[in-house]
Amino acid sequence: MSSKKKHSRHLKSICVRVLGAVLWMCILLILCTIGLQAYNLVFPPIAETENPALIGEVTIPFRLTTATFIPFLMLPLLALVFVTLFLQRFFAKNGFGYSDKIPMFDKHPHTRFEKKTCKRFMYGSFWVSLVLCLACTVVHQLYVVWFGLIVVAIAGYLHSYCAKMMRHRRRLYHHNKKKTKEPA
User: Fold this and answer.
1) Which pTM value belongs to this model?
2) How far is residue 42's CA from residue 133's CA, in Å, rounded to a whole number?
3) What pLDDT, in 10s, does the model give residues 147-156?
4) From the CB of residue 153, how many other CB atoms can be counted at a distance below 10 Å?
5) Which of 63, 67, 79, 160 has its CA 20 to 30 A from that of 111?
């Protein structure tokens, strides 16, 4: 067996593990964003009471609070989008062969991320985030939390898409394994 095939098989196994990590990171990002929105609803950030600076005076520097941290959650979301695009392109060019061995698929033959569960999680997290955004806007006049709704919506869709990709890859892998077995 050539070393190129071994390297390709190892690379496929790593990409499957990265796909699983993207799934869990999307869930973590959604829960973190909803948690920050709920925290801002219960404990609103303290508004600055100083008078605005006159022309030529030094202004107050940017302060990172729970409300101003929410737009920065778009950076890990952007990284997850790029990783997902890479994995999609990798799997489109490199299918699973008969001799491939993916330990993750052998150890866990069934996925935990079913289609209905992912859709319910996506829609449920979106509606919870929407209600929290509306409550923060009405009660505390916070508009920065709406960035959190964007993060939750995109991360939810990304989670659903990656779960679909994982289910499809697992199905192809097990289908090829069944073909290689000798009939009795």
Assistant:
1) 0.83
2) 12
3) 999 999 999 9
4) 16
5) 79
